[in-house]
User: Fold these one by one.
Assistant:
Number 1:
Amino acid sequence: MLEIKNLVAEIEGKRILDGLSLTVHDGETAAIMGPNGSGKSTLSYIIAGKEDYEILDGEILLDGENILEMEASERAAAGVFLAFQYPLEIPGVATMTFLKAALNAQRRAREETELTTPEFMKAVQDAAAKLEIPRDMLKRALNVGFSGGEKKRMEILQMALLQPRMCILDETDSGLDIDALRIVSEGVNALKSDKRSFLVITHYQRLLNYIVPDTVHVMANGKIMRSGGKELAEELEANGYADYKAQEAA
Amino acid sequence: MAEVATLKTPAETALADLFARSKSLLPGDARSREDAFHRFAEKGLPHRRVEEWKYTDLRALMREIAPLAEKPSEAGVARALSVESVFAAAEPATIAFVDGHLATADAMPAGVTAVPLAVALAQGHPLLSKLGAVSDAEGNAAYALNAAFMTDGVVLHVTGAVDRRVALRFVTAGAQPVATATRVLVVVEPGAAISLLETHESPHGVAHQPNSVVEFVVGDRAKVAHVRLNANGDKALALSTLTAHLGGEVAFGSRNVVAGSAVSRHQVWMTFAGADSRGAVRGATMLSGDQHADTTLVVNHKATGCESRELFKHAIDGRGTGVFQGRINVARGAQKTDGQMMSAAVLLSEEGTMNNKPELEIFADDVQCAHGATCGELDDDLLFYLMARGLPRPEAEALLIESFLGEAVEEGLDDEVVGEALMGVVEAWLAARG
Amino acid sequence: MPAVQETIDRVKAIDVDQYKYGFETILEVDKAPKGLSEDIIRFISAKKGEPSWMLDWRLDAYKRWQTMKEPNWARGSYDVIDYNDIYYYAAPKLNAAPKSLDEVDPEILKAYEKLGIPLREQEVLAGVEPANRVAVDAVFDSVSVATTFKKELAEAGVIFCSISEAIREHPELVRKYLGTVVPVTDNFFATLNAAVFTDGTFVYVPKGVRCPMELSTYFRINEKNTGQFERTLIIADEGSYVSYLEGCTAPQRDENQLHAAVVELIALDDAEIKYSTVQNWYPGDANGKGGIYNFVTKRGDCRGKNSIITWTQVETGSAITWKYPSCILRGDGSRGEFYSIAVSNGMQQVDSGTKMIHLGKNTTSRIISKGISAGRSENTYRGLVSAHRKASGARNFTNCDSLLIGDQCGAHTVPYIESKNASAVFEHEATTSKISEDQLFYCMQRGLDEEEATALIVNGFVKDVIQKLPMEFAVEAQKLIAISLEGSVG
């Protein structure tokens, strides 16, 4: 599914990714953990196609095809979805309008027929019900005045609706209370399939109790320092990132 | 325009005569004074059809021209300064001017030197080249008249972090109306810091015409806290101009409290010439009777990453008229500018007037600029709440007005003693209101 | 930031090729000689078959106009207008007053067809709900060529016709109201208009009548070197209601053409007038060559108690626009509203806003202005809110937001707020911002391309105003905004 080879990236002359390599297979749920400032969020932005970064070396392959030259919208149509750590507010644009515009733009790009309004409404309402998103929230301007938990649920709703193949969750647990965490995790787990992969970025092991990973990668200094199974997350929870920070200082 | 020259009002003619009589007696280069007077005379006294003076028609308000004040006698100085300064509790090093002439001066604290302006003009002091650093003011009538007539003032050169407040006290005395023109130049070297207090006083019942200009030229990383109080008498016509030319990473703050004058106009030009500076300009105006007070402010963002904050409050009683004109200019290329301007007024009587004109002029796209303006009466609900708690109406009103003005008077002022002194002025005004 | 850079590059490359209404219709035309004189005014008046009081009114205006100076106060620069190099009257050769559309030159009908404006009632009727029907007055250069649904409107008592016809057929109404809101000598361009106005729309809605359909006028400048000076007069009598929309287009030409209209609205007790404008005159090319000078005077008089006047405008066209649709809130409890979207691109100069003059007690006003500047354009909001001594309980809320696309344009806000009444409460707020890179990236991550993402965000920005337009025009307006910004948004 996703293959990152020796990725080197900078922003304003500062190196953020320094030869990072990572593979996520079809149907796999991979977690990336690491200390603050290790470049985790940067990695998610670069995969999704944010233009602020300078890519000096390396490749990102989606099903064998290099996506680095593609625009963010083209990557989205190809199946890359990023659940933002801080979802953006768009004043004046009703959530429903936004969802329809996004879904149909992707379908157009993939040369699929656009959904009719009744089909679309049904798809949204089904997904919203599962995430306990009330109907009036869909009529409000996207993310404007939403609580932190509501914004995160809205991200997962978009994921459910857009049916991406490669889902990246950037610190989705941040700012969530225990009930919201449960709802969001159930939403994600319901989407798991052997055709869909997840890359879960988190600082804490807590989220991984709900979204159980197949593999865990530890990121520091802009690269993957160590990889293992889900037990690696528990080890990190017990010992912290001290070992990796020490290397950083060295 | 040629036709203006032929349409001279008696006041304009009187000013021309006054200038012709006085110019040879005034210190310094007569040529530059003539140039300045010429700049004034070209357009004459500004009137309501001149956009920047739309709400303060100087042609109508300045029909009589007072003679230029003469240097007072020692006894006159002693009499004029016998009243304790509002800022006495702040124990500043004070330079006092009576009738536009240097009267007394304390020794300056370390980090600052003072040269009387009359001396500096006569000598051709090198720092005088910094006058007019904010060129936008040049064609302005009040500024040009000051440049033509200025008698005295001071050049402050701030070279270090000054740990004692410096006060400039301007008193116009006497029972017959006189005009004064004073000029202060404050050059703050990079990294230096100063807290400057400025008061303007004159007796009630006399139509004095003080015209003051204070110019700041602030070097990189310097800090300036400036407080000005207009405590002129109830018949005075007071014109004042403040210019500030700011380098990079400067922290500049200026506030003006208007508690006197029949007519006052305070003009501010603040220019951000270096990156990443912060500038804050505040003002509080209290009006009653037939008082008219105008604050006209232009903030020029010419460098990147600067932040400006402007806050003005007017409390208007009687038949008072308040004017606020404020403009934030963001030049092309001044990206990451953050400019915010707020003007709020309460009308306390049936006959007050407030004119607000807050403007934005933006030529760069990556900026955040906002302005707000409100006008209304005291909040009925709050008034009722306070009265329900047992406060009589006048006290309840006073409390609300005090808190309304307080935001512009003492908030953000990192100086409790000065803040208290200013709030004392507000309380005195409220007490007089009854 | 590369995305912004790209946007700017495209803005620079913008051409007004996207102006979809730039075609010209070739017709046989009846013209007065170029230039302005008493004779020309007599010619126009005679062509219109006007009574002598109207001619006298025009001649008086002309005399006064000759003593006036062209204003030069708005932020704007343009070449001097030679008032003697303009045709003041140009009319397609018609049979005297066509009785039906069959008598109208098919070329003109084609022009309106191209503009998407239905003039044939049966076409309008096909498959449209009666409530959504729109009656149209079509003004082509100096004359009204057709007015639809007149008969049905007449049954409801509504007079909807060209102003020339009203002067002939309803002189008592015209004389009573014409020039009472915008006096003859109000300003240079209004006075010129009073002297030379050629046509425009007249509406009278009688007491208690709710106008059964939307009324609209489509103005089309077609002839070269022709000024368009239309005059519109709308009177809503006690307790009546009318919603009116005007649309404007012109051919793409290298020369500048002057459009100096006057619109007067009068709302009597408890009456309501909604006036919407979609202004899409030719804006000139990328270098500022050509385009319409749109110098118009629009004013509404809330003469009666509890009357309401609402101005809604979507301004995308014209090389220069000076326009301040205003409300005089004379009647106690009356209400004025102004909702505006002004889009400028290329070299356009827009200077627009409103005046809300609070005279009566408990009068309220609301101003929502959204300015979008792109290219090398200048976009200014200029407005006045004032409360006079007797305007107790006056309320105003003003919100002016500006959005900048690219760093070569300008956005300005010049509000005047004057209160002489303590119980008047005025609130004003204004902001300036740009579309954030983060918002764009977020939308693009969801699959929208940059142009779609920008259009979506801009639509959100203007939504409060779009909602105020009649339904059938809201969609049109949104499209128009997108077209106007094409090229500036990737």
Note: The CA atoms of residues 94 and 139 of chain A lie 5 Å apart.
Number 2:
Amino acid sequence: MNPTIGWIRQLAESWGVPAVLVPLVPFLVLLVALYAVIGLAAYGAKRAWPRADKTIAFWLFISPWLIGFLVFTVGPMLSSVYVSLTSWDLITPPKFVGVANYTEAFQDPRVGQAIKVTLLYAVISVPLQTALAFAVSLLMNVDLPGIRLFRTIWYLPSLVSGVAQIVLFLWVFNPQYGLVNDVLGKAGIQGPGWFNDASWALPTVILMSLWTVGGAMVIYLAGLKDVPTSLYEAAALDGAGRLRLFWHVTLPQLSPIILFNVLTGIIGALQIFTQGFIANGGPKDSLLFFVYYLYDNAFQNFRMGYASALAWILFVIIMALTAVTLRGSAFAIYYETEMGGRRRRPRLRKG
Amino acid sequence: MKLRNRLLPFGAGLAALLLAAGCATGSQPAANSGGADENGDITFSFWGTNSEAASLKAIAAAFEQANPGTKVTTNWIQADYEQKLQTSIAAGTQATVIEISNTSLAGFAPSFAEQQVDPTKFVQPNISEALKYDGKYYATPFTAKPKVMAVNLDAFKAAGLPAPSPTTPLSLDEFKTIVAKLSHGEGKKRVYGTSNMWFKGWLTAAGGGFYNADATACTFGDQQGVATAQYIVDLQKQRYAPSSIDIEGQDQAQWFAAGRLGTFSDFGPWTVADFAKISKPNWTLVPVPGKGFPMEVGGLAIAKNASGKKLETAKKFVEFVSTQQVAQDLLIQGNTALGVPIIAASTPTLEKVLPPERNLAAFTTALKTGLISPSVPREGQISGDADKGITSYTPLGSGKDDVAKILPGLNDKCTAALKQ
């Protein structure tokens, strides 16, 4: 333990701080020290540049987040670059191995399988989720009595956490005692092994993912509510039918929202973990998602260096796919302000 | 104003210094000291269920009582024990005394202190031998977890079979004949002669092993391994034993209580509590057929970086837990057991938990004859990869491929990984 932290803890103990609170004391003391330094720096900056008080206040206000981001996100990311160049089992000191982990990853057949499974999941599940969420939001956009209750019901599954969800679906898709095979059996159909069958495991997870489209549906619904009715009226006056209204008004108006949902969907799909973890990678590595394989190497095989290299490979894949999606979709996205449209709620000048 | 101007940089400098000192990495990670390295207080980390944790907490309290002025802070890690242990070692915050299983010892040995163990204090030499790595002791045993088999006496009676011997194990052929006679019925009411069969366990029972004796090669895919796998597959095919798909999401102890199993072979000391509630069907314990299932040994390791008074207390604590009757008796709490006590004076404690007709003495017999698998570094990866292959491709799991074709290939991969 760091001697300073040990000293602060001892001090706290000698002052009679309850034992459960003792670990918190060094953290709080260091936090106060940090803000003493930051506060003084801000004071000095204000004296040097008296007109920059708003800028200084801005940095002071965002400093808790900024410090957290630097310490808990950027710091570990930079440290993982170094770790990815080492062989480290956490017990013995890390050994520098250069790019050996990256070389191994490019030759590892299980990395290939993990990329294949993850991409396949993303390519199939993201369009399906997008289409379903969009279709449901169109249905939920009609004004009917009780529609709010329906919206709530559709949204509720999104609140179920990943582990609870997969445990629930392991039961639903249980080959012997599950609800799905029971219903299929009553219709005279012999149900598949679902999670136990290598060729059915991934489709089962994709099916499962459709259960939680409520989150995206709410975003689409908000977008639909925001489409100006004047556009529909103008198009209707020009003789547009329902299909044309949808194609020429609704879709273009919602295209930035669709892009947002697709992008976050792709990133989320590439980071899928829980389903693979609970299913232990699935039979014949059929659910060997990339992040699960990364976790497996880090915390089952204790190969921190290799796992860090895999994390950076995933980072590059996600960046590349995001960039391709952004560039590739540019022609299809309608931004109102760029196309000569005007702001719907222009700010009025005071006075 | 002037004084304030002078004091401010001074205060800031002091705060910055404190911050730098507080955030600097310690030169040498020390065992979790709770802020006072020079006193003899120790920390003790362990895994387990509520009742297992209760046992170990009671033992720590008994040690404090026997050694006034000594404090043992317990750290019950309820899930992902090895992962948390490994990260705590990397952070230098590991406990002074650490519970470790013989199967995981090899991977952690570099972070444990070497210990002096007297094998004669335990009921059989295998127990302490299990905690040796590279010829040295890195942990002291404090409990053993042999397996026995529960038999449904009502089912035996109904099938016209005599109850198996409480002390002599059945042969594998005798077992096959018996489970065939115990099995009957169809669909979800089918009664199976035996519970789902654990390949590693039955491999040991048949005289084979997952690794060879000196852990230089994997042997689960040799002739014996394939024959044992085929034995299990045959029992599953004839529906004398449920497959892993049949038992998915099911509690086999409940199946036994409902009369759906004739025998329950994977019965560890921790299973006693579940079965204690079962009065019907009538049941008893007998040895696992053949050479029995591999026995796990629970050990106590001391962090390599423990020193001074902490090290002294840690050694005293380990000695107390492993060899003192007051501590060994506490392994049994009510009708549940963390494991079987390993000193002769305490072995009857477990036997008395349930009436003699339940034959908990079968654990004592299994303890004396139990075989122990060698410990290999990277056990999780090596055995995990092999297990995954076995369960993915063969009917021992959810696969359909022929065990004779799959096991030798997986065995070669396993041996290659072992030699890396």
Note: Residues 3-99 of chain A form one domain.
Number 3:
Amino acid sequence: MTINNIKELLGAQVLCGNENLSKDVHSACGSDMMSDVLAYVKDQAVLLTGLVNAQVIRTAEMMDMLCVVFVRSKQPSKEMLDLAEECGIAVMTTPLRMYDACGLLYSNGLTGNGIPNV
Amino acid sequence: MSDTLTFHFDVDGENFTSAGQASVQVKKNLRQLGFDPETIRRVSIAMYEGEINMVIHAGGGTADVTVDDGCIEIVLSDTGPGIANIEQAMQEGFSTAPDNIRTLGFGAGMGLPNMKRYTDYMHIDSVVGEGTTITMKVNY
């Protein structure tokens, strides 16, 4: 799935990083807890979140992600978008809620890594 | 790599928004030095968690990164309140972070365990009321 496919499936608005739209991604994760993203995520290129602060972008950067999707029409600040531009991360916002956004992407083939944490 | 490289950063404790800047810079430096992505990721995540910890708990501190033959060492030092019970602090889910930190996406008690998870060596030297120094090493 490309990042542009994600945009279309989620009816999302791209706020920065248009140059990433044609890039392919193979898995995603959804979380409002950045520590969990840092702990458990591996090779997921897309982060869906309802949390809006600069640490979301930095966390995505640490995990080498290509795209951050804000759910429930949340709007990142200009400062966050500047940071994302600098890191080469595409940022979009969707009116969908977290569960629906994740479900749509999953049912269209963009899964997580499938590894349970016990 | 024959020469030892060192990077020093002051971590501002006043501003949560800027937390992580040093780690982002280290990541850039390691990328420029041609390190493999997995090593870069391990170093930058461990350091990032440590930076966040210093901002949340200790009012900032310093970060020193040394790139040596076969090993990258990260030393994070602060003069904060110290860690009363290190064993407890190392347990996943144990946190003393205030509630407002949780609304920022941190404070879930994953910081120190994550730092250990991503490094080959980690040592915590802490004195209550004086401060904490954490030394981490990532072999490459």
Note: The first strand of chain A starts at residue 13 and ends at 16.
